[in-house]
Design goal:
- The protein has about 230 residues and is of the alpha+beta class.
- Helix content is about 50%, strand content about 5%.
- It is built from nine helices and four strands.
- Strands 2-1-3-4 form a four-stranded mixed beta sheet, with helices on one face.
- Helix 4 runs parallel beside helix 7 (about 175-190) and helix 7 packs across helix 8 (about 200-210).
Length: about 230
């Protein structure tokens, strides 16, 4: 009989944020127990899930190992916070550089993708724009293309011109920046959207997609994903 996984991950097959956490778990060699929260069925707004994450965002992580006082830890929400938590708990392979400026650069690139680009195309934004903002399907797709393009072109400019870029976004090992970049590319594939003229991003993604940690995390491979 196998041991019960230490972590519970509340996830959904399609979300960019869940993809990031899956990649990190894969890189660290840790397997959480996943609970599918069907965003399309509005399960993230259920009373039970809102007790875990009052914002209703996916993913959320629960550490089953209790605190010294016997109480459960507070659920961890926000994918970047989860990535840093996992990196501190399991230091190898490291997802952040050892030097101060390197860590700041990686966090900056990660935030451009996870905080400035991804939030613009989430289901709750779509729901508001299509129910209150007067968007039809064509307007929503134009919105998606605009924000994906804006975000990726800015990241491409940095990666192509900054000397710290290496085989990956920062140097020659995977960092949080690569995970966040791959998460945007993964969800763009789901939506069948491409941003042209990003050769540096394309090169880095080709390297990432050779790694099992990224391949296993692909949305189409997850439970609940529609058949191809």
């Amino acid at each position: 009989m196998t041991d019960t996984p230490r972590f519970e991950l509340f996830s959904f097959w399609r979300t960019s944020a869940t993809y990031r956490v899956r990649v990190a778990f894969n890189l660290k060699g840790v397997q959480p127990e996943e609970h599918n929260i069907n965003i399309d069925a509005n399960e993230q707004r259920s009373e039970a899930y809102l007790k875990i994450n009052p914002l209703g965002g996916i993913p959320a992580l629960i550490d089953r190992e209790k605190r010294s006082d016997g109480q459960l830890h507070t659920p961890i929400t926000q994918s970047l916070a989860i990535l840093e938590f996992l990196d501190e708990m399991y230091p190898q392979p490291a997802l952040l550089p050892t030097d101060l400026h390197g860590r700041a650069r990686v966090r900056s690139l990660a935030a451009m993708l996870a905080a400035d680009t991804h939030p613009m195309i989430t289901p709750r934004v779509k729901k508001y724009l299509t129910t209150t903002g007067g968007f039809d399907d064509a307007a929503w797709r134009a919105w998606q293309i605009h924000w994906f393009t804006t975000g990726l072109q800015a990241v491409e400019q940095r990666l192509a011109t900054e000397s710290a870029t290496g085989t990956f976004c920062h140097g020659d090992s995977v960092t949080m920046a690569d995970i966040c970049l791959a998460s945007i590319i993964a969800v763009m594939k789901v939506f069948k959207i491409e941003v042209p003229n990003t050769p540096t991003i394309d090169r880095i993604m080709a390297q990432c997609h050779q790694l099992e940690a990224f391949v296993k995390a692909e949305p189409a491979r997850q439970k609940g994903a529609p058949a191809a």
